[in-house]
Amino acid sequence: MLNEPTFDLVTTPRLRGAYDRCNMRYTTEPHPGSAAQKAYDFVKWAILNSVYAGGQLLTEGALAEEVGVSRTPVREALLRLEVEGLLTLLPKRGALVATYSGQDVDDVLDARSLVEMHTAAKSFAARRQLLPVIEEIHERMKRNRREHDTAGFTASDREFHEAIVDAAGNAVLSAIYRMLRERQTLFTSVMLRGRVDRMDEALAEHERIIQALRGSDAVWFESVVTEHLAWSIDLARQMLD
Questions:
Q1: What is the pTM of this model?
Q2: Residues in the chain, pLDDT under 50
């Protein structure tokens, strides 16, 4: 389980161990085993799980030492992460982890709603293949909640919704949706950290989605998805108040 970090960017075996245990990959590209990919995976994981907080300055040298590679692959990784909007490069200083505003939250959630609502009907049509996938993820989320594993819960929640969108069979929308969820993870992990009540609410929301998929009413399923999205948006806005 990841505890909330209270340290500056230094070499920490605990941090490396947490990453290795989670073994989370936030890129859809196959892992070629390169040093640049290794640095990219690690830094992206740390940003999306709030190990590196918004507004934190990351330096190439410290990251290279942390990951166990030279500065050149770290520089390549930071360039990719800047393109994805997760950080901003500062000449001769390093990279600043992205922060978010109320407008950023609204923009991401509005776009997420458009994708999920557009794909809901087609996803429902593929419910026989989809159900066992999201039921397994849901069980994992319950285990994450019991263990108070915020990072694991956030990752599983994202996987739950990505599976539903993927079931629609539109690779372009799936790619867009993954980008949006990466942006959302920047603030979702903060919303859930230490809040078992919010994890319980999310689990209850997902139970309703699963129940709707077990039925034969596509309109009901789309209604449940709409209500869940409204709940997610309201929760995010509460955090910013």
A1: 0.70
A2: 1-31
